[in-house]
């Protein structure tokens, strides 16, 4: 821990930094999964999905930076290397052998949903630690992820 004049107690900051780094690992993993989908999608909806996945990636990249910077603001170290992410992400591995738009939509919606669940849990935990700023950060991320999940799932719901 680095010294800071932030008025949150050190024990709370330690827990918050741990929580932020957990979501940092997930968000970096999610970002790479979005690029995997962006690069590899095929089919009649190629351009729409290619662009959608890239837009999601851009938003998630902002979440990555915001989450990492909050951990550092609290006196911590952001753990964001690829090896750190592999060790700590709670997301399942993105399928490496899919190509169709439908399969990527399924995989992307699964990843977004899993990440959203973790973020909502983080909202609750940061509230318990009395950190309104981190709670607000996670709420903003949750709102964005839910929007992207809606955009992606619309491609599945059209067939019903």
Specify the overall morphology. Answer: elongated
User: What string, H for helix and E for strand, traces the elements in order?
Assistant: HHHHH
Main sheet makeup? none
- Residue stretches low in confidence (pLDDT < 50, at least 5 long) are none
Percent helix, as a range, is over 70%
Into how many domains do the coordinates divide? 1
Q: Strand content of the residues, in percent?
A: under 5%
CATH architectural group: Up-down Bundle
Task: Kindly provide the name of the CATH class.
Answer: Mainly Alpha
Q: Tally the helices: what do you get?
A: 5
| Rg calc | 17 Å
| CATH structural fold name | Ferritin
The helix/strand class is mainly alpha
Instruction: Report, as a whole number of angstroms, the end-to-end distance.
Output: 52 Å
Mean pLDDT: 96
How many strands in all? 0
CATH superfamily: Ferritin, core subunit, four-helix bundle
Summary, kept brief:
The chain is an all-alpha fold. Helix content is 75%, strand content 0%.
Would you kindly provide a written description of the structure presented here, covering whatever features stand out?
The chain is mainly α and 160 residues long. It has one domain (10-157): Ferritin, core subunit, four-helix bundle (Ferritin). 75% of the residues lie in helices and 0% in strands. It has 5 helices and no strands. The protein has helices spanning 10-40, 46-73, 82-88, 101-128, 132-157. Helix 1 (10-40) packs across helix 3 (82-88) and helix 1 packs antiparallel against helix 4 (101-128). The protein is elongated and about 55 Å long. The mean pLDDT is 96.
